[in-house]
Amino acid sequence: MTATEMSLQDAAKQDWDVIIIGAGMGGGMAGRRLAERGLSVLFLEKGLVGYRTEQQAYRDHIDDPLARILRGYWPKRVEEHDGGSVKSYFAPLGSGIGGSSVFYAAALERPEPHDLDQVEGIPHPTGGWPVGFEDLLPYFDQAEDLLYVRGDIDALSDVPSPKLRPPPELTQEEAAMMDDLRARGLHPYYSHIAQKRVDGCANCLGGKCPRICKMDGRSAGVEPALASGNASLMSGCNVEELIENTPGTITGVRVNQHDETAVLKAGTYLLAAGSFGSPTLLLRSPGQSGKGCANSSDWVGRGLMFHIDNFFAVWPKRGGKPIGNSRAVSTRDFYLENGQRLGLVQSMGYEANYGTILHFLMMQFARSRFAKFARLKKLLSIPAFAAAKLFGNADVFVAQMEVFPEPENRVVLNDKDAEVFTFHYTVGRDIPTRQGVLRRAIRRRLGWWRMMFLSIKPVVNVGHPIGTLRFGDDPAQSVLDPNCKAHDLDNLYVADGSFMPTSMGVNPSLTIAANALRVADIIADSKMRQRG
């Protein structure tokens, strides 16, 4: 870090322009823009700063809360209610500077225009976002520039990406895989990845990096904000409540740090605690509605979405080698299929070896009804060993499938432990049909003898929670207005993935970053007008 952390007592002595709750991708990028535009910014982060020299991946087998928070993981299991059972497991969520983004694989893909807009021949599940693709396009460009996104132009897209930097040179194995896919009529391109590739780059996608190489909410957001001299940071603190003493206005935020509590004040409050954390905080803040702060519509927490992942192994051509630790290969050939909205396909950066297959099996086991029978977990090594022998030198790919919002899929309060993110989620009835369309298309294009699916049932990607504070024009059907300001409040904005009314067919990180910059400009412009 480039600035000293602030104590609770010192933070309480100041009236800030903006207090940002959460220091992940959305909070980090918004904070950077606000600080660089001259506003005083305070980041409030539950997790710790950590050491900049850390190099570690996310591990879900560590279950001690203190050990988890020291590593930058969310300390508690999530609790999932699916209508028939309750499951408790560790979700891949971060808690620290940069949030979950310090563990992500840095894939920053743009959505397609039809992800956001009603496009002729491609009906949109909600009729379109209140802020369309063209309005967000300048911010996609800015986010790609600030996050140093590198990659190829997608041959299937006619939208230019002027800030996209050239990708690294392909390895021999990557080039062979690309040529093989093109020979099958597909249109692969080098994935859009936020990575500078500085000297000594270890290509450590999927974990914390000690170098300023992988760009995330920490390296591209919080750290530049602190370096500006206009931002300060409080880590290791719990935001207990948003205070609405004056109807329609947040008058303070109650914060606990090291067993001391104080109320911090700002002109504007920016919520960026993630699609679990942000609605949870609003629900436990009484507000004026009696249903939680900013919740007159009863939509706080509703509309929770996760992408559906379809993992499959792909063998290289005879005599070829796998691409291994590479996220380089993406294709949008399956983004739309027979009028069905599907999503992006990309390499995972793993070989289909024993450890990888066992990981997938254990992940599915933890979210199944058999999870309570702990002894059964040991038996998973048998099918993992057999599958590893079968797959040999195959690479793992994922087909990420868009999901649509359902009001009853929602985040709720846990009445025993506020740190346990709790949600009700049922896979949509349309998922099996669309998953069947996707899988048949992949098998047809790749060939039965060259690929094999690693999962049968829909795999819910709980690392991509979105949609729980949706924005919209109608205050009765949304929490936020098109500027991502709460309908009910004049000084509360949101800058994380909870604003999204649909999930899109790509991962949400670039869209979160772009919208955070947009929201920060809206706030800064308003402050400038007030100051004359």
Identify the notable features of this structure and list them briefly.
alpha+beta; 20% strand; 7-stranded mixed sheet; single chain; 532 residues
Report Rg: 22 Å
Shape field? globular
Helix/strand-derived category reads alpha+beta
Helical residues, percent: 25-40%
Mean pLDDT across all amino acids: 89
Ranges with pLDDT <50 over ≥5 residues? none
Q: Write down how many β-strands occur, each being a DSSP E stretch of 2 or more residues.
A: 22
End-to-end C-alpha gap = 34 Å
**Major beta sheet, specifics?**
7 strands, mixed
Number of helices: 12
Assess the beta-strand content as a share of residues. Answer: 15-25%
Layout of helices and strands:
Blueprint: H1 8-12, E1 15-21, H2 25-36, E2 41-44, H3 65-71, E3 78-81, E4 86-89, H4 113-116, H5 133-146, E5 149-150, H6 172-183, E6 189-190, E7 193-194, H7 218-227, E8 231-234, E9 237-243, E10 252-257, E11 260-271, H8 274-283, E12 305-314, E13 329-331, E14 336-337, E15 340-341, E16 345-351, H9 354-366, H10 381-391, E17 395-401, E18 410-412, E19 422-424, H11 431-446, E20 451-453, E21 459-466, E22 492-494, H12 509-530
Parallel strand pairs: 1-2, 1-11, 2-8, 3-19, 11-22
Antiparallel strand pairs: 3-4, 5-7, 6-13, 9-10, 10-11, 12-17, 12-20, 12-21, 13-16, 14-15, 16-17, 18-19
Helix pairs in contact: 2-7, 2-12, 5-12, 9-10
Question: Can you tell me about this structure?
Answer:
The chain has 532 residues and is an alpha+beta fold. The protein is built from twelve helices and 22 strands. The chain has helices spanning 8-12, 25-36, 65-71, 113-116, 133-146, 172-183, 218-227, 274-283, 354-366, 381-391, 431-446, 509-530, and strands at residues 15-21, 41-44, 78-81, 86-89, 149-150, 189-190, 193-194, 231-234, 237-243, 252-257, 260-271, 305-314, 329-331, 336-337, 340-341, 345-351, 395-401, 410-412, 422-424, 451-453, 459-466, 492-494. The strands form five sheets. Strands 1, 2, 8, 9, 10, 11 and 22 form a seven-stranded mixed sheet that branches. Strand 9 (237-243) and strand 10 form a beta hairpin. Helix 2 (25-36) runs parallel beside helix 7 (218-227), helix 2 packs parallel to helix 12 (509-530) and helix 9 packs across helix 10 (381-391). It is globular. The model has no long low-confidence stretch (mean pLDDT 89).
